[in-house]
Amino acid sequence: MAETTARVPLIAGNWKMNLDHREAVTLVQRLAWLLTDADHDHEDVEVAVFPPFTDLRAVQVLVTGDRLDVAYGAQDLSPEDSGAYTGDVSGAFLAALGCRYAIVGHSERRTIHGEDDALVARKAAAALRHGLSPVVCVGEGLDVRQAGRHVAHTVAQLEGSLVGLSAEDVARTVVAYEPVWAIGTGEVAGAGDAQEMCAALRARVGELHGDDVAAGLRILYGGSVKSTSAPELLTQPDVDGALVGGASLDAEEFAKIVRFDQA
Ligand SMILES: O=C[C@H](O)COP(=O)(O)O
Questions:
Q1: What structural domains and CATH numbers belong to the chain?
Q2: Which domain of life does the protein's organism represent (predicted)?
Q3: CB 220 less than 6 A from any atom of ligand 1
């Protein structure tokens, strides 16, 4: 539906609970070195990594010290700003570390930690309060897809995960469509499936917040993305990048995904 020219693709690496702060430095250095190859520019693509909380300071020091063109963010954050919330991490602390993004509503948090749409929306609001862009994850399970209810299900999940946000908030948000059956399984969605869902999500955001917000919204695909599948997936008109899990732990493979348009 919308023009795609204004949307800078975002290739985001979600490391999940992998790599300590020393390993993080090695991976980011290697990635930055691979991405500075002048013969293979990636100026028109934004690159971001999402290490564990404990790695963020080390990544910040490296990125700022060496002026690396790599953004970073957290994999989660508290819906609260401060106080007696043992084990939680405030968006204020993430902003102080130079984070640009915070993932909210990843299916692993929805499933393992029982997070629902209302909590995800509160976390998205907390990220925005602190100047971070939330990366709001949605996606259907296999049973829902097999029942043919995947579009309605995922659109409703997004709507619930954006409750209370204004059009201005949503304009600063990134959405990630991650079919649960494709995460960590090697089972990647077809490019047509990804396009169908991303277009439906964009259309719903347009109905809720206006065509301009929808046209500017970046919607990523996530689920077993590899350098071999990235070119077809990421050239779909409504797919504006990827949220990459396993393949983001391999600097060479992740750099190839960043250069999906040169494959
Ligand atoms: O956040 C990333 C997604 O869960 C995808 O993970 P994956 O690429 O290992 O399937």
A1: 10-262 (3.20.20.70)
A2: Bacteria
A3: no
